[in-house]
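Ops channel
N.P.: pipeline sanity check, posting one input/output pair.
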């Protein structure tokens, strides 16, 4: 993909991987448009990157996606890349009865349904471009469900399956479909967790995004660091091993979560 002459829409571009993508895509010479829900974070991003255009939009709301499509295609008719990055991840004990039904599946609405609806909404526009791309951010967890985050695991396995199917449907078109598969990355995603992630297992966002940029420039359909390649292979050869390994953390989380709920 040529990035220098591209116009790129990044959902959830005000923090973590999205914000780092804003920085590195801008450095590549791309025109960047960013969304998010929090107006203060959008204003902060606009201040830090004056050339970047910010729009408030919630990917879990279909009406917001429809409006975003109208606004972006009107103001930026050259748009040729969308990056479905907006996401959230909660640790969750499904025996905890405090979730209501809408809230319990919020990761599916944001990470998976949001990605599908964005791709569907913008596809007719992207098909009119000489060179275009849909970039979906899944996760290493797509290969190994993490029992502390069951709904997130389901959402990311879904993103990966959707991305693979979409790529096949679009193989004879000008729209390339990329699957970005990060491992654990130091961002704000884990800020609210009662059980913090193991820092030695985490990658920095700048390194991850560097891999994304190289992957896009080289048209690699599946963009992942070495560690995720290992996870993918092990999950095939020894299915169940990594899931059991990750599940060791569930009892710790359950205890901490109980303590938090009683307070
Ligand atoms: N960090 C990791 O370990 C890791 C690993 C694998 C995959 N990923 C994936 O990478 C992506 C980015 O995550 P991150 O780690 O950079 O997290 P982050 O630092 O928490 O950033 C998330 C971004 O998404 C936005 N967002 C959240 N919900 C949204 C919604 N409904 N509509 C629009 N924007 C929304 C947030 O802004 P507002 O809150 O203002 O909306 C923020 O800009 C996610 O899809 C995540 O699942 C992360």
């Amino acid at each position: 993909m040529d990035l220098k002459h591209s116009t790129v829409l990044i959902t959830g571009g005000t923090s973590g991987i999205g914000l780092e993508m804003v920085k590195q895509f801008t450095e590549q010479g791309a025109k960047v448009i960013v969304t998010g829900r929090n107006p203060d974070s959008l204003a902060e991003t606009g201040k830090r990157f004056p050339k970047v255009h910010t729009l408030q939009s919630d990917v879990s709301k279909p009406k917001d996606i429809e409006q975003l499509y109208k606004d972006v295609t009107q103001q930026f008719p050259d748009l040729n890349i969308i990056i479905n990055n907006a996401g959230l991840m909660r640790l969750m004990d499904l025996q905890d009865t405090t979730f209501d039904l809408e809230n319990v599946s919020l990761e599916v609405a944001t990470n998976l349904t949001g990605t599908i609806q964005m791709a569907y909404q913008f596809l007719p526009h992207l098909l009119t471009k000489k060179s275009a791309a849909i970039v979906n951010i899944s996760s290493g967890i797509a290969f190994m469900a993490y029992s502390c985050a069951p709904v997130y695991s389901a959402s990311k396995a879904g993103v990966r399956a959707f991305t693979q199917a979409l790529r096949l449907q679009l193989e004879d078109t000008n729209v390339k479909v990329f699957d970005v598969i990060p491992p654990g990355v130091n961002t704000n995603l884990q800020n609210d967790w009662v059980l913090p992630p193991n820092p030695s297992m985490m990658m920095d966002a700048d390194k991850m995004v560097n891999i994304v940029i190289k992957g896009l420039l080289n048209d690699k359909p599946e963009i992942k660091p070495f560690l995720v390649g290992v996870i993918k292979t092990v999950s095939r050869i020894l299915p169940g091993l990594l899931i059991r390994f990750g599940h060791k953390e569930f009892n710790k989380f359950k205890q901490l979560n109980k303590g938090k709920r009683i307070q």
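N.P.: looks fine end to end. The chain has nine helices and nine strands.
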